[in-house]
Write a structure and sequence with these properties.
With 245 residues, the chain is of the alpha+beta class. The chain folds into three domains: 90 residues, FAD-linked oxidases, C-terminal domain (Vanillyl-alcohol Oxidase, Chain A, domain 3, 3-Layer(aba) Sandwich); 102 residues, Vanillyl-alcohol Oxidase, Chain A, domain 3; 32 residues, no CATH class. It has a four-stranded antiparallel beta sheet with strand order 2-3-1-4, with no helix packed on it. The radius of gyration is 22 Å and the shape is globular.
């Protein structure tokens, strides 16, 4: 996008120039928020400098903006207003969200972000967040990478398609990203995936499948919920004139 609530037009131009100097056309930036009130305001700049001193980044590329707490919480709505005004809000969003093991994130970066998507200028966001595996318990139905590592990355390819051709291209790239991970043995897991067969869902859930099937049978035995995902076979519909008990 040309601008965001937290980057000025001049900032965007500087970042674009930096990206062109990298050779790959890709740069990475960290977003962070520092909260303060009247009592802590005098020391907030000092604390920010202490945090920045611990990071490694290109000199001169620190961007800060002081906003109210509500403005920070409302920042996505502001972007929505901008996108709606440009008539690029109600468009297809072929998003792909993956959980990638920490040990393979550099391979993913080289093969997908700088490889498959290397020449792309995405309309949308690409987000990466490190996650602590210890916070994800076995009781959760969400499936994390089976590598047993203490950290994995959530990678969100949150792109928008402004035309039918662009939609097809993004969908092909999403499939290429999944195929690359499979070929290279990167044991990533999709978040909110789509599979067309129960075998696909079984492979996705892995060791959790048995427990999920038991929960489904216990709490939704008639398969009323989540029919569109086709995780479980739909119950057969009685033929006309037959009776059920």
């Amino acid at each position: 996008p040309k601008s965001t609530p937290f980057f000025s037009e001049a900032d965007i131009n500087r970042l674009a120039g930096l990206a062109s100097e990298t050779g790959s056309g890709a740069i990475y930036f960290i977003e962070a928020a520092m909260y303060y009130d009247e009592t802590t305001a005098p020391s907030v700049n000092q604390k920010l400098e202490m945090v920045l001193a611990q990071l490694s980044f290109v000199p001169g590329f620190v961007f800060t903006k002081d906003v109210t707490y509500f403005q920070f919480l409302d920042r996505v709505r502001v972007e929505e207003v901008v996108l709606r005004s440009a008539d690029v809000w109600d468009v297809p969003h072929p998003w792909l969200n993956l959980f990638v093991p920490r040990s393979r994130i550099l391979d993913f970066d080289a093969g997908v972000l700088k490889g498959i998507l290397g020449g792309d200028n995405p309309v949308g966001l690409i987000l990466m967040y490190p996650m602590n595996m210890a916070k994800w318990t076995s009781q959760m139905t969400a499936v994390t990478p089976p590598t047993g590592e203490d950290v994995f990355y959530t990678v969100g390819l949150l792109r928008s398609a402004l035309s039918a051709d662009e939609l097809e291209r993004i969908q092909r790239e999403n499939q290429s990203a999944l195929a690359f991970c499979d070929k290279e043995g990167i044991e990533c897991k999709q978040y909110l995936p789509h599979y067309t067969s129960q075998d696909g869902w079984r492979r996705h859930f892995g060791a959790k499948w048995s427990n999920i099937a038991q929960l489904k049978n216990k709490y939704d035995p008639h398969a009323i919920m989540s029919r569109g995902q086709r995780i479980f076979p739909l119950p057969s519909v009685p033929a006309a004139g037959t009776a059920t008990t």
